[in-house]
Amino acid sequence: MFRLQGSKVLAVDMTGDAVKAKNGSMVAYDGQMAFKKMSGGGEGIRGMVTRRLTGEQMTVMEVKGHGTCWFADRASEINLVGLQGDKLYVESSNLLATDAGLRTGTSFTGMRGASQGNGLFTTTVEGHGQAAIMSDGPAVVLRVSAQYPLTVDPGAYVAHQGNLRQSFQSGVTFRTLMGEGGGEAFQIRFEGDGLVYVQPSERNTIAGDV
Amino acid sequence: MTFREINSKMVEATVTPGQKLFSQRGAMLAYKGEVSFTPNMSGGQGGIMSMIGRRVANEDTPLMTVEGSGTVLFGHGGHHVQVIGLTGDTLCVEADRLLAFEGTLQQGTMFLGSQGGVMGMVRGQISGQGLFTTTLKGHGAVAVMAHGGVFEIPITPQRPVHVDPQAYVAHHGDVRNKLSTALGWRDMVGRGSGEAFQLELSGSGAVYVQASEEKL
């Protein structure tokens, strides 16, 4: 059971089940807990190879036991996402914890990933259960529907879920090349039906510089 | 209550004549009324011996005495501030996390080795707290700083609490602490879960934990 204690601390009540959480993000626990390092990006040999190749090697630990465990990471805001069989795409650095019932994997993002400054791959979470994602400042959830596509700054993008197609937009013009750009040279455009999580802060990206 | 939380990062303290406040030097943001701030050479209460004690213990955060009548606003470095009320029990807190406290509280220094012997000293080193910590005892309120907000976890004899040493802020009550290690072969081969050391707090009281693993 995931619950938020304030906006920056995640409390998980456990009764013998296990959760996966970012390495070293435990701040306190009571009861009996065991911590074991795991590796993100899928299980087994295939997962290991993918991780090595993609650089999405999120270090995850498995927490198992009875009691309450509290997680937090560098005072980031935490958002709970409930998944019912759908897929959540999130940057591995923004993923704090997932239920045991969720599978994590790696997927290719292409140009979008490069523009975010996060590399070409991203982490996917799928299954039934809850996940906790982190954002720098409270995230807003924006709904995308067929009539209303959404365009997001790559640096402010945190995660998305649902049936979304993403495309990469660039507004590079002659002015940008002359160093007179507006600082918004690249955007990600989401079309389809789903949710996009956006944080009120921008990571350092290539796009932010031009 | 002398301290009133204005928002999560500022507290307002009411000062009345004859009542003293101690605060970290430079933590005053604004004040109303006739209030005087005197740097406190000895770094807190007590005589010259306490001062030497604190110097030796490296727990001598520069403090100032606040006196007069009026209201003072305190805040520091954009850190979250938590007001903790004490009713006769002892609060253990790192000196650099102290923002302000009432003069009615008795300040002291505790040697960590006295709690848990050698492991207590190891604990201090690992959590970056050093070998000594500051204690405040009596009736009054304390404003403590933390990165990213604090939450309180009650400790009961049946439910000991384990805390990440970096996220630990303060504790009060009749609490024993010891460093528990969960070092296994995995840590030796560099596959640790990052939670090799934990502070185990048992007894009855409460521990304050911050939502971050960063020191101040």
UniProtKB/TrEMBL annotation, chain A:
Pfam family of the protein (one): AIM24
Gene3D superfamilies: Mitochondrial biogenesis AIM24
InterPro entries: AIM24, AIM24_sf, Trp_RNA-bd_attenuator-like_dom
Protein name per its UniProtKB record: AIM24 family protein
Organism of provenance: Streptomyces lanatus
UniProtKB/TrEMBL annotation, chain B:
Domain of life: Bacteria
Pfam family, one: AIM24
InterPro entries: AIM24, AIM24_sf, Trp_RNA-bd_attenuator-like_dom
Protein name (database record): AIM24 family protein
Species this protein is from: Streptomyces lanatus
